[in-house]
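[Discussion] Sanity-checking designs against the backbone

I'm trying to build intuition for which residues belong where. Below is a C-alpha cell string of 423 positions. I'd appreciate it if someone posts a full sequence so I can compare it with mine line by line.
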C-alpha cells in the first residue's frame, strides 16, 4: 500500500471521527435544557404569545426547584398583559404557594428578591389568602366605620390601574401593605382617576355623589367615552351615596375638619347656579365652610388637589408662590389673608415634554394621605429631596414614603387623583 493511500485512509477516518463528534456535540446542545432564567426571560418577553408562554410555564414546572408546584389551571389561564418581570415572579410564587427562596429567585430572575420574600411572608402572616391584585369589590365595612371620622381609613384604586400600570400599582400596594393600610380595587370604572368620579365623604361619614360631567371630557375631544358612569360604579361596589345635581369632581374638593377648599372652576361648571346659592348648597352638603381659591388656567381640570393641600384647617401646603404666575399668586395671597391661612411653599417644576402635553410630573402636592402615612410622588430630580424635607417638616408625626409615579403622572394625574380614601 502506497504512502498516499495510507494518508488518504487516515484522513478519511479522522474526518469521520470529527463528524461523529461534531454531531454528538450538536445533539447534546439540542437536548440540553435551557436554564430557568432563560425560560423566565422568554416568559416575560413582550413579543411572545400567551400560548407560547404557557408552554414555557409547563417547562419551568418540571425543573427540580419548582417541582411541579405551578397549578395546571394557573398555567392554562396565564396571560402576561402589561405586567413586568417582578410582578410576574411574585404572581407565580404567590398564586401557587411557592416560597420565594433565594435559590428560586436567583434561578428565575438572577438575583435574590428580599422585597418579594417580605411581601410573601407578610401576606401569609396576615392570613390573606386571595391575591391582593385581584381584590375588586368593596364590601360594607368602610361604610359601617364611616361615621368615625378619626377612625381607620381604606384606600381604593380603579381596577384599571393594575392593568395599565402593573409595576407602579404593585409598588404602591407594597407600600400600603408594609404599613398595614387596608385597600381594594373598584370595578366598573372607565379610567384610573377614581378620586374625581367617586363620592365625597363628609366629616359625619356621609357620601355625596356629585354629578360627573366635567367640561374637559366633552364629546368633541373624544374623551367622553372614558367618563365613568358613577351610578353604575356605586352599584357594582355596594356604595350608597346621596346624589347632588352640582357638577363637581372629587379632585376639586379638599376637606379638613369644618373647612373645604374648592377652586373657582366650580362656578364655570355650574352656570345654572347663582354664586351665593351654589356656595350655600356646597356648604350644606359638605357640612363645612367653603374656601374658594383661584384655578390654574393652564390646568384643564382646575382641580384644587394639584395646587394645595391641607396640613390642618388653618395651614395649607401649596406650589411655591414665587414660581407661580402673577394672577394666581395674587389671588391666592388674597385668600390666605381673608381666611387667616398659613401657606407653606412646596417646590414644583414643569418639564418640557411634548410627548405628554397633559403631564402632571413635577407636582408634589398631589400625594396620597391615609391614616398616619403620606406617599409622596418623586421624579428623579433635585427637587425631590426638597419636597420630601418640606413634607417631613409639615407632618413631623407622619410616616413619609416616596414612589416613582412618573408613568402615571405623564397622563395628567398623580397619587391623590388615583386613590379614593374613605373611613
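Best answer:
Here's mine. Compare freely.
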Amino acid at each position: 500500500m502506497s504512502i498516499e493511500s495510507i494518508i488518504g485512509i487516515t484522513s478519511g477516518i479522522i474526518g469521520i471521527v470529527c463528524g461523529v463528534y461534531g454531531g454528538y456535540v450538536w445533539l447534546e446542545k439540542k437536548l440540553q435544557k435551557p436554564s430557568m432564567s432563560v425560560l423566565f426571560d422568554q416568559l416575560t418577553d413582550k413579543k411572545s404569545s400567551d400560548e407560547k408562554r404557557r408552554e414555557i410555564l409547563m417547562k419551568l414546572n418540571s425543573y427540580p426547584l419548582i417541582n411541579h408546584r405551578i397549578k395546571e389551571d394557573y398555567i392554562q389561564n396565564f396571560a402576561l398583559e402589561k405586567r413586568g418581570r417582578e410582578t410576574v415572579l411574585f404572581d407565580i410564587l404567590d398564586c401557587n404557594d411557592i416560597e420565594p427562596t433565594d435559590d428560586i429567585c436567583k434561578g428565575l430572575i438572577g438575583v435574590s428578591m428580599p422585597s418579594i420574600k417580605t411581601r410573601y411572608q407578610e401576606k401569609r402572616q396576615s392570613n390573606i389568602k386571595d391575591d391582593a391584585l385581584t381584590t375588586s369589590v368593596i364590601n360594607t365595612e368602610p361604610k359601617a366605620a364611616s361615621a368615625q371620622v378619626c377612625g381607620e381609613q381604606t384606600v381604593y384604586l380603579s381596577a384599571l390601574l393594575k392593568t395599565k400600570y402593573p409595576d407602579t400599582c404593585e409598588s404602591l400596594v407594597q407600600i400600603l401593605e408594609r404599613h398595614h393600610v387596608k385597600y381594594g380595587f373598584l370595578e366598573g370604572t372607565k379610567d384610573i382617576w377614581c378620586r374625581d368620579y367617586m363620592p365625597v365623604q363628609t366629616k359625619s361619614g356621609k357620601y355625596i355623589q356629585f354629578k360627573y360631567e366635567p367640561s374637559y371630557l366633552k364629546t368633541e375631544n373624544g374623551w367622553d367615552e372614558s367618563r365613568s358612569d358613577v351610578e353604575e360604579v356605586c352599584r357594582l361596589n355596594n356604595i350608597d351615596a346621596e346624589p347632588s345635581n352640582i357638577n363637581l369632581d372629587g379632585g376639586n374638593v379638599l376637606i379638613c375638619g369644618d373647612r373645604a377648599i374648592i377652586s373657582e372652576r366650580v362656578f364655570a361648571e355650574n352656570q345654572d347656579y347663582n354664586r351665593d346659592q351654589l356656595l350655600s348648597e356646597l356648604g350644606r352638603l359638605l357640612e363645612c365652610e367653603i374656601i374658594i381659591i383661584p384655578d390654574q388656567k393652564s390646568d384643564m381640570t382646575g382641580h384644587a388637589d394639584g395646587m394645595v393641600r391641607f396640613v390642618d384647617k388653618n395651614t395649607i401646603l401649596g406650589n411655591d408662590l414665587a414660581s407661580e404666575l402673577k394672577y394666581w399668586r395674587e389671588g391666592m395671597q388674597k385668600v390666605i389673608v381673608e381666611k387667616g391661612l398659613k401657606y407653606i411653599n412646596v417646590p414644583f417644576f414643569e418639564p418640557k415634554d411634548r410627548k405628554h402635553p397633559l403631564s402632571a410630573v413635577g407636582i408634589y402636592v398631589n400625594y396620597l394621605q391615609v391614616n398616619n402615612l403620606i406617599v409622596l410622588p418623586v421624579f428623579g430630580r433635585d427637587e425631590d429631596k426638597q419636597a420630601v424635607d418640606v413634607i417631613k417638616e409639615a407632618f413631623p408625626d407622619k410616616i413619609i414614603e416616596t414612589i416613582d409615579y412618573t408613568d402615571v403622572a405623564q397622563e395628567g394625574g398623580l397619587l391623590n387623583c388615583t386613590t379614593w380614601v374613605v373611613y
